[in-house]
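Quarterly update from the structural biology core.
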Amino acid sequence: MEGLKMDFLSSDALEGSSSMEKISMIINRVKAGDILVIEGGLTPSEEAELIETTMREIDIENFVGIDIHTLERDERSFFGFSKKKTIGITIIGPANVMRSVKKKSNFLSIIAELGDSSASVH
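Predicted structure, tokenized:
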């Protein structure tokens, strides 16, 4: 049976991991064709390192890269002014599978396509 594997990780699942452990785990799972949904997300430096590492590992026949999408929420101060943005969830998947992304301030819709892609299926 073919299907798309999505792994949902709580923020606790990555809490004790180093930045490089997180990045390695993400790349390995995405290379296998999985889509990760992570509560919270990566720090800006971790995300930059993830993108940099991914760029070094691109192989047109086997691994074309990743897509990263985050859904943020505003934390409000006492008077209703926006205090800061926090990441609600982060979705990371193979670039050759994640076809269509619609994003608004509080809505994220992704269509993943298995058709002709070379991503592995489970």
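The first strand starts at residue 6 and ends at 9.
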